[in-house]
Design goal:
The structure is a homotetramer of 348-residue chains.
Chain A lengths: L3 E6 L4 H10 L5 E8 L8 H4 L10 H4 L4 E2 L8 E4 L3 H13 L3 E4 L24 H9 L4 E4 L3 H10 L7 E10 L11 H4 L10 H12 L2 E3 L2 E3 L4 E8 L6 E9 L5 H9 L4 H4 L10 E4 L7 H4 L8 E8 L5 E7 L3 H17 L5
Parallel strand pairs in A: 1-2, 1-4, 2-3, 4-5, 5-6, 7-10, 12-13
Antiparallel strand pairs in A: 7-11, 8-9, 11-14, 13-14
Helix pairs in contact in A: 1-12, 6-8, 6-12
């Protein structure tokens, strides 16, 4: 396999740093380009930004001279870690110039001709890409991954789509790393719960419907299930926990549901993509698991953990799910999307 | 008003200490007796137990010589802060011996002739007491208050009973103080979420139905609404947060629901009981409130705070509620129950 | 006693909010004026700023129309809660215009003719004020209180000055509330220690020498003791902990030191000033106290708690001290300074 | 290299679990035996104990049938993770029966013929072993590693011994994982600092002197430096932070000290032992590092990180150090001791 050069738009921010770390030692992708604001352009990364993550800035990345956010010299495959306030125009400009933009930003997620992909859940939605190129007269393309809490919920629900999901009520307990840097003020969250995260509930509700839906007539056709989200920030570092009650049209028993979860497998596993976890969804039988600090980082942070499957007195079943928000919920999600696209021949 | 002497069963434990603190300076009740295990009996409180709460042990309480858990010299009104493993027999023995046992323990809560009271919500359930005395041939009686998370939910729901509650899905984020001492190991909860609290979901589901229900034919008649609880421990000190989605038979609008909450008032407020908060349920209009660290302790920890009332795409409305688990959810709940009973003449 | 109108410079910031809360219900001082930047001027406080502290904005304060930071209509006594970046010029302008500026800002603390006061420790340093007025041709004056961690250390050391303090090594564990709002990013401090707080060590070293020193020839004459500080941020909400090893010229025994701490009393106590704690320094005999969450807020947050007095194998004695950083270390410190000044007739 | 079978005494406890995890995939040592109390003996580990660490119990270890704590069938090399309350007699029994006991327990650390080893600091102290065997008529032997906070301090000081260490004052901020399981109650430590850890200060003072000392006449001869420790628990998961002021007889400059730290290397590095970090002490130049959450786990948790080297106004220099308490401070320390012993031919 040849090495594919990749770039990161928004490479100096915290999400960009998660990409840099996740791409270290990647067998297919080699990071050679970082785009950022004019303020950073022309500086080496190590001079342009402090490292916010564990440990130290990877030395090779630190030597990359940051570019401005123009397509000019960027490699064909570009990950977007840009802030939503600037992503719309720049991502479009790159796609128009022939780049494959694999974006973690929310800006294009809900557009009907933009695939919103979780590779284990809806890889077939990549079929929107030719439509997108035609609609927009782009030689490149934009592919997106969902919001960090949505990834956890949709991966836990993916094995259950077969039972006919009709209604979902979910409540989240989200880590501070999900808010970027500086993100949440410590005065707001130390020993506290904040019962509000801007736009998060709407994203979780809409994105879940799109991901679990289908493609019809060259458009994303959201699942008709009703989804309600309650989102909360809690004082933990990494790992989003989602608790959910679900109603199914086919009224499966608890054993059927558990068995569906335990046997679930996806395209990334079948194709043995480099960042694919061995099992995408891992069911834990201990009564007090999964837990974000003990479980979210396992399997390189790429699996989602589910536990406490039981009957719900109001809907049908309830359970708790947990996943790593900055890996499976962001950088790792985008990289796995790119790996899926490579495996589909989209980069040939 | 004359002073009423009171005792505390389980007076050396952490819940007992919350009672001691809450009763300090009480205008009606004077703490004169503490019952505990034989191991502590005969010692002054200050020699029998370390003080686990903020500040120092109240000096007067520290001088009380702890008794064994026998009715003998105890005052007529006794609060029970006993561990569930021992409460059943001892509470019955006290009731049989003529004592009024106002218990925070879970042991008798679900018995059909034992009132499970939140004074603002179901004061009329005290009418079970003559039945209880008759059934059990007791000269005394047992009255209970609910589990700490149930108090928060039922107070938030009380103003909404008029709309015909049919289904409730609730998720909690509970403080470590709710687990007593030593309670939750710090290795389990620092920077973590534990998605399980033993028996908590069952308690929340059943107790809510009983409290919001009625008394029929001398028995508690639980509300026929379906209730589903998801319970979680989070790394905060005090204050339980409950997020809920609710379905009503009468389909009220958001404004009707908010108006019902804001105008809600109860018997403790009407009678100006000493521990009654001015308003039992306080609606907060800020988009990110209530929060446990900033709100639970307001109004002496006796009010419940509700916020973020909005439409639920799955049921009808959703909101978040927060209250102080060791005050409104335990010691303060029991003391307010006793005040209600005094105001009903039950101690005359 | 007549009521004295007071204002707050920097009234919309987080330190300003601590002043607003501390002044609520003050028996001598009535808050009537708030100064802030031009951006806030002309708005009611409730429209100019969100409330960051527990509970809700005091209603009366919320109705005050914010002024710009000009002396014009401000009352004679003004507390300064301004950010250090702007305090120098504005405080001088107010003092020149005849105002008594009682400042929590660091800007003027180390000037030799500006009193840096802890009322229990060095009230006599107010004698610098006539010199200051002469030096600067001011009809008003500036009085300062120390940095939040310095207050804790100097109050613990004040009873020990009599033994001849020669060397002090202190290490701090400081709460996030000491950094203002938004202050420390939660990604930096949740489940972490940050071993650096900008300028804090220098402030603690120099301010301690000035406060424990004397006034000679109309100038502050710092104590010649050597002081070394190690400052750290830890993930707690309120309360700074300071651990210290001290060397004395007179080599007192542990009992002498403890007895000096326990019998310590100051001018605010003798004069029964409204915000004075009953005892300024409270010695705790429990082996694991004081603790910030359990102790810092006691005595209205105005006392300093000391414990674990024992021999130091390197210097003479060591101990741990703890106090409330936003009350005794900031707003309460300044208000007590103002009360001391009133009691000295400086506002007549 | 042949594989060496190893056992763990105290294999069901939390420290034992750290050993199990650390030994996973070890190139020299293969875990085949676990000793524990009679209560666990005869059960498979997975049935005898819950897994307290991140992730799940390693499957192979889970299948080991736990033995009682008798030498009988144990392998020659045994790690001791036993609680101090039982370690003394059992460790001696194993050493008498010919076993090489590499102990993390405190019980034998301070005996003059028992090596207390940090392999990078005092490998030559292994020369006590023949004396120990002679003194005690043992065919086996006991080797110990220090307390978790002592490891961090002594590794930071080791490069500085050449300057003549005369006095050290250290203050620690220690993680909850250092207290085992259930260890610290969450009610004591969430949003709090506990300024006391039983016996910790004495251990840190004495063990530091022994480790930095020499062997004279077949006995450990402690360094004559005076050491004073202040120990505190803070609400973090892993990683002990130690801040220190040090006085040297040779009065080196800051650059000399930093250069000594940066060039420091030890026997484990020279011999390339499997668990040796590339550099034992890593100096960080950022002004706010090292930090426990961001640094302690780097280099597999086996390095100690030092930063903020600067002049101390009281002694000569001060700095902050940080290391992983359950790895470099416990299980990893013992395993590296065993590797050192293998490299010395002590297991031949």
């Amino acid at each position: 396999m040849r090495t594919i050069e990749v770039g990161i738009l928004g490479g100096t921010g915290m999400v960009g740093q998660h990409f840099i770390r996740f791409l270290q030692g990647h067998p297919w992708f080699k990071l050679t380009w970082l785009g950022a604001s004019d303020r950073s352009a022309g500086k080496k990364l190590k001079d342009a930004a402090g490292w916010r993550l564990e440990g130290e800035m990877p030395a090779a990345a630190g030597e990359i001279v940051v570019s401005d956010s123009k397509p000019r010299n960027a490699p064909r495959l570009v990950f977007s870690a840009m802030d939503a306030s600037v992503a719309t125009e720049i991502e479009r400009e790159f796609a128009a110039a022939g780049h494959i933009v694999v974006s973690n930003s929310r800006n294009h997620r809900m557009e009907p001709d933009v695939p919103l992909i979780v590779p284990e859940v809806n890889p077939s939605h990549l079929s929107l890409l030719p439509v997108q190129q035609r609609n927009r007269h782009w030689s490149g393309m934009i592919v997106t991954n969902p919001n960090c809490s949505t990834v956890v919920l949709t991966m836990a629900l993916a094995p259950l789509v077969q039972f006919g999901i009709e209604r979902v009520i979910a409540a989240t307990m989200q880590a501070v790393s999900g808010a970027g840097y500086p993100g949440v003020a410590s005065m707001d969250i130390v020993a506290n719960v904040i019962p509000f995260i801007g736009s998060e509930e709407e994203k979780m509700q809409q994105e879940t419907q799109k991901i679990l839906g289908s493609v019809e007539n060259g458009q994303a056709a959201p699942l008709k299930a009703r989804v309600s989200a309650h989102c909360h920030r809690v004082p933990i570092v990494d790992g989003h926990t989602v608790t959910a009650s679900v109603e199914f049209s086919s009224r499966p028993g608890i054993e059927d549901v558990q068995s569906a979860i335990e046997s679930f497998c996806g395209v990334p596993q079948q194709r043995d993509l480099p960042s694919a976890p061995r099992k995408p969804v891992i069911y834990m039988r201990e009564q007090d698991r999964p837990q974000p600090r003990r479980d979210a980082g396992r399997e390189n942070g790429m699996a989602v953990f589910v536990g406490r499957l039981r009957e719900c007195p109001v809907l049908n079943v309830k359970f708790v799910a947990c996943g790593h928000n900055t890996i499976r919920g962001a950088a790792g999600a985008a990289v796995l999307n790119a790996e899926l696209m490579v495996s589909e021949g989209l980069l040939d």
